[in-house]
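Can anyone check this?
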Amino acid sequence: MIRLLRLWRMVGKDLHLLRFALVHPRRPFWLVPALALLALYALDPINFALPFVGAVDDVVLLPMLLHLVLRLLPGHIRSGYRHLPDRQGLISRLRNAWSPGR
């Protein structure tokens, strides 16, 4: 169960990086088609025919595929995202609010 929670925490970070990569002026040409294929995969008929298999697929496989796509991004996009200033301090406030010490 803890591994699943770690996976979903990784997905949250990946979604922020994905948004940054999509609006980046030098995004790779393959990013939008890869995300379109990933979206089509998420909506495939197996999800509707076999609901349990579709749920496992959506919970485990899709986040891993999204992470793989983002790992293939060029270094200048990933490093540019890491060096963005946290203007509102939102991430640090959320970390402090959810820290186990409180």
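Reply from J.R.: I decoded it. The chain has a mean pLDDT of 76.
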